[in-house]
Amino acid sequence: MAPPAPSGAAGGSSRAPGPAGFSRGFRLGGAAVHLYTASGSVLALLIVIAALNGRTTTALWLGLATLFIDGTDGMLARRMRVKETIPWFDGARLDDIVDYLTYVFAPVVLLWTTDRLPSGTAGWIIAALPLLTSSFQFCRVDAKTEDHFFLGFPSYWNIVAFYVIVMDLGPTTAAVLFVVCSILVFVPVRYVYPSRTEAFQTPTLALTAVWLITYAVLVAELPHPNPVVLAVSLGYVGYYLVLSGYLTAVGIRRRRGLSAQGVEGG
User: How confident is the model at residue 16 (pLDDT cuts 50, 70, 90)?
Assistant: First the structure.
């Protein structure tokens, strides 16, 4: 869908154009995309309520909905050219706020209410780690690189929570995962941004779609998930980590090569 032509252009509307010559209808479409993104914050609240009420499966289904919204809103925003149609509204900041609620805060609450974290003071400390490290990461200006990678562990605490519950992992294992992933926030590995990283994008998107299907199947089968489906799901995680490590290494070699050329040229 292309934006209507500015007023006075061939085929243009006689109505007064909005910002950059876009029609009111197209600008409303852009606003609808922002509302779509913002709906994730409501889902985060519903996840917390479901967790507090002991409805773990419901919380995971809502988590899947947030993944779908986060995976599609950027594409819709670019399609509707929201930066041009609503230039005064910071969609990236909205996305970060919603992501913090759905990817960090709500999953920690879910694990806390399901007794998947250690008890006592240790549990409070472990639960605080994602909240603090992700607060740092979400404020880094280089958290998303110009060539569309995440720098450092991309706060996928919702995914961590998903596997802790599906695999019925105990508090000690969950605590180890929390500590390791919190440390990885500060390690400059370039993690694939599935919908935007250009390298291997076609297979990555296809495998991401398969992973989302396995997510739904595993939740539907709780508390006895199919081991084959679980293996396929974990296979995608392995693919994602290996690809991220490989592309990080390729980027390091490329930068070193450019640096060496610069020295020689100087």
Answer: very low
Query: Is residue 8 domain-resident?
Result: no
Give the residue from 110, 94, 13 showing the smallest Cα distance to 59. Answer: 110
> Does the residue 265 lie in any domain?
no
Q: SS3 for 135?
A: helix
Instruction: Give tens-digit pLDDT for 172-208.
Output: 999 999 999 999 999 999 999 999 999 999 999 999 9
Percentage of the residues of the chain whose pLDDT score is greater than 70: 89
SS3 state of residue 153: coil
pTM of the model: 0.87
Taking only Cα atoms into account, the Rg of the chain, rounded to an integer number of angstroms, comes to 21
Q: How many folded domains does the chain comprise?
A: 1
In which residue are the tokens 């390298």 written? 199
Q: Is residue 261 part of a domain?
A: no
Domain-located, residue 182 = yes
Confidence (pLDDT) at 259 = 66
Give the CA dihedral 185, 188, 193, 196, nearest 10 degrees: 140
Distance, CA of 74 to CA of 181 (rounded, Å):
25
Domain that holds residue 188: 19-256
